[in-house]
Amino acid sequence: MRRAILTTAAALASVFCAASQNTFDPTSVVVMGGGISAGYADFHLVRPNQVNSWPALVAGPMGTVISLPTYRDDGQAGVLNAFQPLPGLLPQVSQGGERALPFPIFAMNLSVPFLKLADSLRLRPLLRYDGSKLSATIEHDLLDTFVVGILGGPLISLPAPVLLTQSEYARMMAPTAIFVELGSQDALDAALSGDTGRLTPVSSFTSDYSTLLQGLLPSNATLVVMTVPDPTDTAYFSTVAEAAALQGVSAADLAQRLNLQSGDLLTLAGLVESGEILRGRRKAPLSADAVLPAATAATIRSTVTQYNSAIRNAAGTSIKVFDLYTFLHNIRTAGAAVGSVRVTGAFNGGFYSTDQLFPNATGQALLANAILQFVNSSYGTKYPAVSVPGPPDPAIGPRSSENASLITFLGGRQ
Fold first, then answer.
1. Range 283-293 average pLDDT
2. Domain spanning 26-247+302-410: CATH superfamily
3. In CA terms, which of 34, 264, 360, 371 is 20 to 30 Å from 161?
4. Distances (CA, A) of 132 to 110, 126, 128, 157, 159
5. CA distance 221 to 109
6. What is the DSSP letter of 395?
7. Beta-carbon neighbour count of residue 335 at 10 Å?
8. What is the mean pLDDT of residues 3-25?
9. Does residue 286 or residue 13 have the better pLDDT?
10. How far apart are CA 245 and CA 236, in angstroms?
11. Which of 156-160, 183-187, 254-258 shows the lowest mean pLDDT across its residues?
12. Do the Cβ atoms of 279 and 405 come closer than 8 Å?
């Protein structure tokens, strides 16, 4: 009898979970993600960018509130060195360690920049004793500081601090819908370093993603998961042809002078260094961090494809999958119309912020509308699109070899 009761209960739970995936209730929406969903842009996380993130934008049309753990962009306490993919070359930007006001008791956008999939399951806010008191800001460790500020919030100030992982926090909120945008950082680390050894193994990614969804399904929230984008589709990486157009020379000439092979990608450092070499201000060859070799890029792309297969397999037939990979790939290859302007994902194409890795306000709005359209087509809702602001004027455009170097825009060494 007990076995029959348990079997019946399990079957009913399975039916209820499956049913919940066919409807979308925006009463209480939680977002689990990384830098894209957090609103990270221009090398730091600050309130003006966070309020333009896609979770903040879709909340209005959905008739809900997705509270944000916003950060101040000033303040004497807890100012950190922000993310610097090319130390000494790109502008120095500070990251505040203090939350901005108004201060929600609970955050609904739980996205943490630089968070990997495994971190969502295992990384908790870390408090350190600085000699006189517990400190919630961890100097020079952006990920830990963001985890404390976003996932800790007021919970860490309780007499018995509540230290939750991102996935535990999401379940605690008992949401009606959960968006999951995780895995980008698992590939981005390798792309920025040029080291495929920093890719999360596919076996670990597959196991962790399955564990993540198994933990979220009992909440009975509708889950919308997103595929992992290809980091080489960001504006941080330029093809030889794109770099040559920026420098005002032919692709063949640039490849010959800089010893570039077919399929190689130039990083931001590569754009700067190539301009300096062409203008006689620097001697060849390019430095190691200036080029992402074709073979390395191919390995990263292949791994991302396997990540996305793991996501689709874990989602099965009941959980809807928004194809973030294809959306960002199409932005890079074809662009999108914003009024009379064509926005692309190439360097200074109007979609990415000045860090060339994370979307600006224009890019976030385009992404928000793609997600709203996906929800409408998947669940029969009729949420209206959001207004898309025009892209900022490009700091530089296609240039001839007589123009000033890219280094003027990037603010690097003179």
1. 92
2. SGNH hydrolase (3.40.50.1110)
3. 34
4. 30, 16, 10, 16, 17
5. 15
6. S
7. 18
8. 53
9. 286
10. 16
11. 156-160
12. yes
Residue 103: the pLDDT is 81
- pLDDT of 299 strictly over 80: yes
pLDDT above 80 (res 113): yes
% of the chain exceeding 90 in pLDDT: 68
Q: What is the per-residue burial (b if ≥16 Cβ within 10 Å, else e) of 365-378?
A: bbbbbbbbebbbeb
DSSP state of 356: S
CB 239 within 8 A of CB 265: yes
pLDDT at residue 127 tops 80: no
Q: Which amino acid appears at position 332 of this protein?
A: R
pLDDT over 50 (residue 354): yes
DSSP track, 3-68? HHHHHHHHHHHHHHHHHHTTS--TTSEEEEESHHHHT-BTTB--HHHHTTSHHHHHHHHHT-----
- Give the C-alpha separation, 393 to 414, whole Å: 24
What angle separates helix 240-247 from helix 251-258, to the nearest 10 degrees? Answer: 100
Domain ranges of the chain: 26-247+302-410
Report the C-alpha dihedral over residues 172, 175, 179, 183, rounded to 10 degrees. 10
The 10 Å Cβ neighbour count of residue 296 is: 20
Q: Which of 352, 331, 343, 368 is nearest to 51 (CA)?
A: 368
Consecutive H or E run containing 82 = none
Question: Is the pLDDT score of 413 beyond 70?
Answer: no
